[in-house]
């Protein structure tokens, strides 16, 4: 975890310098740092699950590519999640990319009070809250954090069960 936290700290520095804004404070930096650290721990749990359940590295990388593609699509980065059917909404909650994206969006857009719009004839968002509403996000962070921690624990548990299974099967030979 210390290595993950160091890498998250580096990423957080990059994020805050890219999003140079006057309304960011140290508390915002800490919020970004918390989210990037939680996301990296969740990613580590995903890797633990894959390595615990699959023996072959080649097979694992072959399986991971389509899983990660679906997870990226279901994160809401490329696709408006409000337009999903009820059946595909399930995949949103299984995506390791969805929760960090939602948390970072909430942290960023909830601090934007007013958006200037000089374009006539086009609909414009007037505040960050409207942006969050358009993309189907609320402004509450607590529930999303609980869901991210839950997904992380489930992935670690599956990885642990897979590792135990591999040890038992391996000892039979």
UniProtKB/TrEMBL annotation:
GO terms for cellular component: membrane. InterPro entries: ABC2_TM. It is found in: Membrane. One of its GO terms (molecular function) is ABC-type transporter activity. Residues 5-106 form the ABC-2 type transporter transmembrane domain. The chain crosses the membrane at residues 33-52, 59-79, 141-164. Keywords: Membrane, Transmembrane, Transmembrane helix. It is a multi-pass membrane protein. It comes from the Eukaryota. This is ABC-2 type transporter transmembrane domain-containing protein. The lineage of its organism: Eukaryota, Metazoa, Ecdysozoa, Arthropoda, Hexapoda.
């Amino acid at each position: 975890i210390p290595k993950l936290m160091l890498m998250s700290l580096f990423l957080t520095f990059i994020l805050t310098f890219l999003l140079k804004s006057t309304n960011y404070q140290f508390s915002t930096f800490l919020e970004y740092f918390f989210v990037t650290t939680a996301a990296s721990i969740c990613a580590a749990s995903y890797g633990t699950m894959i390595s615990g359940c699959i023996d072959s590295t080649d097979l694992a990388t072959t399986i991971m590519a389509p899983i990660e593609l679906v997870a990226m699509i279901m994160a809401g980065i490329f696709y408006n999640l409000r337009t999903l059917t009820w059946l595909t909404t399930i995949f949103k909650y299984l995506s390791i990319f969805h929760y960090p994206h939602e948390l970072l969006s909430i942290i960023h857009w909830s601090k934007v009070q007013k958006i200037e719009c000089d374009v006539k004839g086009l609909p414009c968002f007037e505040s960050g809250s409207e942006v969050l509403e358009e993309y189907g996000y609320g402004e509450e962070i607590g529930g999303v954090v609980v869901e991210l921690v839950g997904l992380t624990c489930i992935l670690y548990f599956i990885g642990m069960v897979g590792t135990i299974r591999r040890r038992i099967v391996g000892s039979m030979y």
